[in-house]
Amino acid sequence: MFLENCSEFVYGCADLVPVLFRDCVHDYIFIVPAIELKFRPESVVCHTIFVKQHLVRERHPEKPCDRTLFIFNIPPYCTEESLKHAWRDCGPVASVFFHSTPNAGIPKVNESQFFPIHAEVKGFKVAYVVFETEEGLEKALKWNQTLFLSSSEEPILCGVKKWMEEYNSKIPNVEMMQSEIDKFMADYDKKVAAQIANDKEAGEEDADGWITVTKRGRHAGFARTESSNKRKLAQEDKKRSKKQLLNIYSFQVREAKMKKLMNLRQKFEEDKKKIQVLKQVRKFRPF
Amino acid sequence: MAPKVKKGKMSRKQNQKPIANKHEINDDGFSSAGESDEDRQFGVNLGDFHESNVEEDDYNDDSGESDDDNGDDIEEALEGEDGGDQSRKRKHSEAENGSDVSSSKKNKKNKSSADLKKPPTAQEVARLRETENLFHSNIFRLQIEEMLKETSIKQKRLASFSEWFTSLKDSLTTMTKGEKHEIMDQKWLKDLGVKIPIAQTPYPLKGVFQFFPPKSVFVTGSYSIGCSLGPNLKVDIAIEMPPECFQGSDNLNQRYLRKRALYLCQIVAHLKTAGLISTEEDLGPHFELPRAFNPLLPVAVVVPVGSLKKHTQVFLHVTASEEAFKMTKFGPSKNSIRSNWYFNEEKTDENNSATPLQNATIVSDLVAKRNEDFKLKLLQDSKNAKDGIILLKVWLKQRELDQGLSAFGSHLMTMLVVYLLHSRKISSHMSSYQVARTVWNFLKECDWTVHGRGLSLCDKPPIGAPGLSEFHDHYPVVFVDVTGYYNLAAHMDVASFKRIQNESTLAIHYLDNTSVNSFQVLFMKPVPFYQHFDHILCFYDMKSLQQMNDKKSSKDSKLDKSQHSLRLSADLLFEVLQRGLGKRVAEWGIHAPEKLSWKIKKSPPVPSGPLLLGMKLDTEHAYSILDKGPPADLPEAHEFRKFWGEKSELRRFQDGSISEAVVWLPGKDVSLSERRVVNKVITEYLLENKLGLNTSNCLAYLADQLEEVLTLSHVKPPFAYGSGEEAALGVLAALDRLSVELRGLPDLPLDISGVQGSSAVCRFADVFPPLSSLEYVGQKVTNPDQHCLLLGSGLKYSEAPVWISPVEVVLQLSLSGKWPDDAQAVRRVRAAFNIKIANSLRKECGLTTQAFPNYVDVIKEGYVFRLRVAYQREPALLRQLVLPDGMMTTVDCKEAQSLEKETIHAPKLTSYLHGLHQQQPAFGPATCLAKRWLSAQMIRWAHFPEEAVELLMAYIFVSPEPFPAPAQPQAAFMRFLHLLSTTNWHLEPIILNFNNKLSKTTVSEIEKKFSSERVQLPTLFIATPSEHEYSVWTKAAPSLLILARVAILAAESLKVLQGWYLAGMLFESNVWKQIFRPSLDSYDLIIHLNSCANPRRFQCIDSKVDGFVQNLPVYQKTTKEKIPVVGFDPVQCYLQELEAAYSEYALFFHDIYGGSVIGVVWKPSALEPKEFKVAHLFGRKLQGKNSNQSLVLNQEALIEDFYILGQGLVKFIDSKNK
């Protein structure tokens, strides 16, 4: 999964900390540069990030292979802006994408500010840094200095300040929200109307005399859902079982009795098993 | 269900009249079922087999295997060439030759089902029928058999004991005659190295003691009839003093008792040197008072030498032969202690009062042999009755009823069974289960305390023997033995007997109630004293009780009981308290946990206490703040006034009557928590005024101490706060009024049809309910917006505004078909509704509101309500997925689950628990206690959902078995701890049957599902009537790890509380508080928080109140009102971020109620070095050189991250590893 479908490219630089990377699936050995990442210059300890060129078969125009750097192990508080800032020495960064696991596509963006569908990526993540030029990527792959995420010109908002901002931003502007809703619902209504018209049209006889059965129209079929299918099947089963008479032949009567006895015995056996289980956990010693 | 009815009828019949023989029962069973001859030949009467707890007929019908087999058979029969004929032949042949045609014809591969199909053998039929007739149910029988096996004594041990006993007997009977000594001359005892085991007051006593070898030595008690309870063996041995030991008037002035004690000294001294008993320090002979703590009847306890040493104790009782005295001298109304001797008075008082307890003490020794013989004769060959006795003994022992001051000991229980055998209420054909059931039924119905209803084993009382009424005059509880002179229940008091009766009633109730697992409840679960009662009076200072005895008891009772001081105190206390508290207490209990035993070289100790009295409250009367007496003009009024003294006053009541009354608390502004302990006020008044006790230094009234953790320390609301129920009621009242306004809102596209609260406060389970004032919210740290207050980022941010929690409310709209069919569109429509509702409430009702995409916040009467519109179909829409071929299918997703929880399950849960609180008003505060405790142990709701806590507490109230439902939160809390610490969650599902809404079939289905699908279900499985398939509330948490930790914490906390209750330690200080202070030892890291940034800082357990308590004004709406900062807790935000990012590497613990630290534990699996793999890269760093590089957790960086993420909140982080 790592190294995007395991293309056979080996990247490494002699003066970097060389890392042996063993891909468990394909048994390739890669050398991946590891870079130290500090929160700010004063920090004592650092995270280790692993970088590599983005190379996959499935291409996406937003992530051109020759300009995209793939980074593993990005700490949770890291933002796009701060990452752009951190790599500024290698060259201008066009865009940054975060994913929780390696992904060839680009993250989905929420269209509405009030009704988000996609949650933002939390925790440790992977990042794709797209440089504006190919030199940027080349420089980055040879990078061997410590990176700093937060600085005075580009601070990361954290802690109480961040939560306060979040709280305040949650209180919506009602007028804007209303207008957004109105717009969405108008579009939705149009879509539904179009669907209905489409269905109706399909419900009419076509040139060859065929009718497509839809939910609407003159010949409405039942809804095509799993549950309705099941219901239908159950109904048929029931009908079939009604047709059988169970007490006509004497063997049927006898077998019914046998079944009862069997149930009784089975219950007895089950009880015994239960007791056995209870016995194992010493359930019968009162004190 | 027909068979069940039949069964019920039959068992009732058996209880009423003894059944002559078993045959009759069988016939009965057959004829009533009325099946054809064929079936008899077949050997099975199927209806007959139906046992009472087998679920409905269709129980197994859906179980695939049996169904399929049946189907196969039918097909075979239809298409097979020998079809009908063969089957008819088969019918006849089956009963005769055991070979099973059908099974031989069946496919052989499924052998187990073939086994099920073979015709029943006679033995099997007999057993199944026996189970049906004689036992409760099959599983019940199996369980009883297993338990009897567990409690029986090993055969090997019995054999070696009887060998040892023979040598003991030889050794004792061949003792030599002693010299004559004056009783007062006890110098010879010194040479023996034994001190006399009774208190000799007054010391001077005439008489001569001479030792003669015992007349007989025999095994008595449960061992002799083979009913000993294992696993350790305890044997009673009686040593009969021969008549030669006694002189003419030895019945008087305790001369018998003193001789008996001296005799016992001789025996013990002899055994010490005889080499039969262990003489090691801890196993050596000592004295005990097993017989109802009666200090006049000491018993020597010895341990045999040899292999028996480890598991055997022998109790040596000295008795006297019957012919030594005239029995008539010990009638209940006779006197056996002269008061001039006892009180050392000059004048001889002619009217010596009766001394029933003394007489019973002496006569109990004299009749021992006769009773023993009688018992042996009757129980000789009824194995089942003996098994029944064992069952009953286990039952008594689990309830701690078989020991102590008013014990219903095993001897008494055995004699009761003997009585029932003798009077043919129990027959030897009954099963052990039926014996126990009959005894319970008998105890339930027969009140031995009522005149004339006492029992007597003596058919023909000898001439001169006292009559039953004479016994009743002198003893509260009467059960006369076979000689007609001894009351076997002489030591019991009325309260203890009532407790036995109540327990018996409960036992029968459990047996009849199929939803209770009666075996577990009756025999397996212990019922400790301190968990059973709601209020417990702990008298820890025995000296004051002694003083009370001296001052307050009459001379007569002193003469009789003053040597048995515990008994005398108990009687005095009971007399006054029962009179004074009357109906307020449903059940009393008495308990002296200390076991008195002392070395033979020591003198007998004085009981050091504590003495405990337990009260089970009668919830109907116990909370009233006033006791209404009789009308002023009745003669009883005088008596009432006399009892209560100045406390009693004349009052005019609403119905116009003028009566005497006692008022305990001022009428206004009394909180519910105060009402729950009115009894405490009364008790203290009674003890101080009636018995002269200074309650502050001898009594601990254990009832509501723990509720202190629910009180408020930093603010004072304008009403009595108590433990918070009033505050919750305030919220609910405001919600009611809001709901009226909401329903009446005009111009909404759809009307609001239902308004349901879903916050914890609506089910009385919020530890700190919101208060109705917004005045005290920090204005310094906020900026006003249009309708809301915003957090002021420009201001000093380190101080968080005080915590206000929103009250969640779910709104149901009237039905409409116009909702869109798309989840995203539904979301917008809801938001549009929110805006409409907010505007409408603002315009029509003048409330401050703010609409949000998912909810509306409203201020009503000072509370912030968060209204959510619910649309029933939305979760289903969220789950919908259209497959490429146009087929619609459902896929579960988190959003749908949480929405379902919020809008469907939470309101239902709330209504159930709210209803429960109405029935059982202790539920709410008990839940708050439990939540507070769990949180104080730094368990977060993310680990153990609060709803799960509430449901577990509800379980304590809905299924309190084997206790009655608790009426005091503290008692319920202790049972909660017990539940947490002892339950095996893997084997036991929690089934909450609110109002019996789950039918029996459903319950058994749940159980079946639980056992078959155990692995897929959550570790803690809770089923409720509204949701019994997935256990929604415990699906995500708690994990096994957390459950195990909670179990340990609960066990430790319970130990502390138990010690506090029973051991009488340090009553004045708050010992109990330590269970709310977590230990920080087990955490790897401790993150210390800035307390200013914690909005709930005032709630913490040891919050320092620096003298400043803010008075909250009554809420008033102002024009400038804004919605305050609600639900903003930086600590929770921090924890959420930590959890989201680092849950793979560590666990985070925190006390939500004002905890100032976060505990972090690294997961052991995360700390191990990992191979260099993609899955392990996150959060780790490289270690080692080129070839053997591995990944290890980058702990330092993570700790740095914790600082970074918690900027402004984290003070510092303590690391243990450094």
From TrEMBL, chain A:
<dbReference type="InterPro" id="IPR040446">
    <property type="entry name" value="RRP7"/>
</dbReference>
<dbReference type="InterPro" id="IPR034890">
    <property type="entry name" value="Rrp7A_RRM"/>
</dbReference>
<dbReference type="GO" id="GO:0032545">
    <property type="term" value="C:CURI complex"/>
</dbReference>
<dbReference type="InterPro" id="IPR012677">
    <property type="entry name" value="Nucleotide-bd_a/b_plait_sf"/>
</dbReference>
<dbReference type="GO" id="GO:0034456">
    <property type="term" value="C:UTP-C complex"/>
</dbReference>
<dbReference type="Pfam" id="PF12923">
    <property type="entry name" value="RRP7"/>
</dbReference>
<keyword id="KW-0175">Coiled coil</keyword>
<dbReference type="GO" id="GO:0003723">
    <property type="term" value="F:RNA binding"/>
</dbReference>
<feature type="coiled-coil region">
    <location>
        <begin position="254"/>
        <end position="281"/>
    </location>
</feature>
<feature type="domain" description="RRM">
    <location>
        <begin position="68"/>
        <end position="159"/>
    </location>
</feature>
<dbReference type="GO" id="GO:0006364">
    <property type="term" value="P:rRNA processing"/>
</dbReference>
<keyword id="KW-0694">RNA-binding</keyword>
<protein>
    <recommendedName>
        <fullName>RRM domain-containing protein</fullName>
    </recommendedName>
</protein>
<dbReference type="InterPro" id="IPR024326">
    <property type="entry name" value="RRP7_C"/>
</dbReference>
<comment type="similarity">
    <text>Belongs to the RRP7 family.</text>
</comment>
<dbReference type="InterPro" id="IPR000504">
    <property type="entry name" value="RRM_dom"/>
</dbReference>
<dbReference type="GO" id="GO:0000028">
    <property type="term" value="P:ribosomal small subunit assembly"/>
</dbReference>
<dbReference type="InterPro" id="IPR035979">
    <property type="entry name" value="RBD_domain_sf"/>
</dbReference>
UniProtKB/TrEMBL annotation, chain B:
<dbReference type="InterPro" id="IPR035368">
    <property type="entry name" value="Nrap_D3"/>
</dbReference>
<comment type="similarity">
    <text>Belongs to the NRAP family.</text>
</comment>
<dbReference type="GO" id="GO:0006364">
    <property type="term" value="P:rRNA processing"/>
</dbReference>
<feature type="domain" description="Nrap protein">
    <location>
        <begin position="530"/>
        <end position="691"/>
    </location>
</feature>
<feature type="domain" description="Nrap protein">
    <location>
        <begin position="385"/>
        <end position="525"/>
    </location>
</feature>
<feature type="domain" description="Nrap protein">
    <location>
        <begin position="235"/>
        <end position="373"/>
    </location>
</feature>
<feature type="region of interest" description="Disordered">
    <location>
        <begin position="1"/>
        <end position="123"/>
    </location>
</feature>
<protein>
    <recommendedName>
        <fullName>Nucleolar protein 6</fullName>
    </recommendedName>
</protein>
<dbReference type="GO" id="GO:0034456">
    <property type="term" value="C:UTP-C complex"/>
</dbReference>
<dbReference type="GO" id="GO:0006409">
    <property type="term" value="P:tRNA export from nucleus"/>
</dbReference>
<dbReference type="InterPro" id="IPR035369">
    <property type="entry name" value="Nrap_D4"/>
</dbReference>
<feature type="compositionally biased region" description="Basic residues">
    <location>
        <begin position="1"/>
        <end position="15"/>
    </location>
</feature>
<dbReference type="GO" id="GO:0032545">
    <property type="term" value="C:CURI complex"/>
</dbReference>
<dbReference type="Pfam" id="PF17405">
    <property type="entry name" value="Nrap_D4"/>
</dbReference>
<feature type="domain" description="Nrap protein">
    <location>
        <begin position="921"/>
        <end position="1064"/>
    </location>
</feature>
<comment type="function">
    <text>Part of the small subunit (SSU) processome, first precursor of the small eukaryotic ribosomal subunit. During the assembly of the SSU processome in the nucleolus, many ribosome biogenesis factors, an RNA chaperone and ribosomal proteins associate with the nascent pre-rRNA and work in concert to generate RNA folding, modifications, rearrangements and cleavage as well as targeted degradation of pre-ribosomal RNA by the RNA exosome.</text>
</comment>
<dbReference type="InterPro" id="IPR005554">
    <property type="entry name" value="NOL6/Upt22"/>
</dbReference>
<dbReference type="InterPro" id="IPR035082">
    <property type="entry name" value="Nrap_D1"/>
</dbReference>
<keyword id="KW-0158">Chromosome</keyword>
<keyword id="KW-0694">RNA-binding</keyword>
<dbReference type="Pfam" id="PF17406">
    <property type="entry name" value="Nrap_D5"/>
</dbReference>
<dbReference type="InterPro" id="IPR035370">
    <property type="entry name" value="Nrap_D5"/>
</dbReference>
